[in-house]
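Hey, sorry to bother you again with one of my protein questions. I've been staring at a protein lately and its backbone has me curious. I owe you a coffee for this, so here goes:
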Amino acid sequence: MASYNIFLLVLVASGAFMISEANGELSLSPTHYSTTCPNVLSIVNEAVIEAINKETRIGASLLRLHFHDCFVNGCDASILLDDIPGSFVGEKTANPNNNSVRGFDVVDDIKARLEKACPGVVSCADILALAALESVVYLGGPSWKVSLGRKDSTTANITAANTFIPPPTSNLSGLVANFSVQGLSFKNMVALSGSHTIGLARCTSFRAHIYNDSNIDSSFAKSLQQICPKVGNNDTLAPLDRQTPTFFDNRYFKNLVKGKGLLHSDQELFNRAAADSLVEKYATDQNKFFKDFAKGMVRMSRIKPLTGSQGEIRKNCRKVN
């Protein structure tokens, strides 16, 4: 019965996604700002490169911001809204985001530059989509066309953030369900997981995997136990891809084949199950991974956009107008 209910949830949510896609996605276009803010791409590009040159990790953080935004009521910049004590609860304190998501200052900087160049024109949701692209490209990854024209939400949903953003403890069926609800395919899920080829994770996110799981290389687990004890050091960081954590490549998948995925959810992609063949393909063919990753990003960035009379163009990404 439980599995039947999950199936119904995925089916209903997928249907809602298709309706929303028909209503909103067709309004998006790569040339949306060609006359109203013609320099938007170069402005975002310059700001992202400056930020990454100051701290390489921020590229992965900006990519993650876009992902965590899109998985909660669509790509609407709801993740950027600050809490207002007593009157408004945003998504920043949701379990997957609290003391974890970052890059808000970079988004603020990009927004300030765009407001100076073309006031009230470029949405914060579009900034997130463009910043993710520029981060991946600058760190050596693939490019893709970003359709623009999203509006910003006037609300946030912490419950949805706690429900639909996959936690690091996810098993394969949980990952499939989370991505399916968003209208993303099995291949999209595996390819987009490759975003973990860059960035860092906290000890609290991988502790259970290195102490309790059997599908992990023993020497890899022991090396991580040196910095992540069973108790304490929750915020100690480790690279998701130990070899090239600041370069976007297919090393993540090569590590999974060797039992060296940092998170439980990572190693679930290569654990004698349905995703194994795709992981092996990406591990040996970086071009294939790049191609599928780009397709997945295009698809993800079009999840339930607010367009037309929906939403607003925020003046400050942290609060509604």
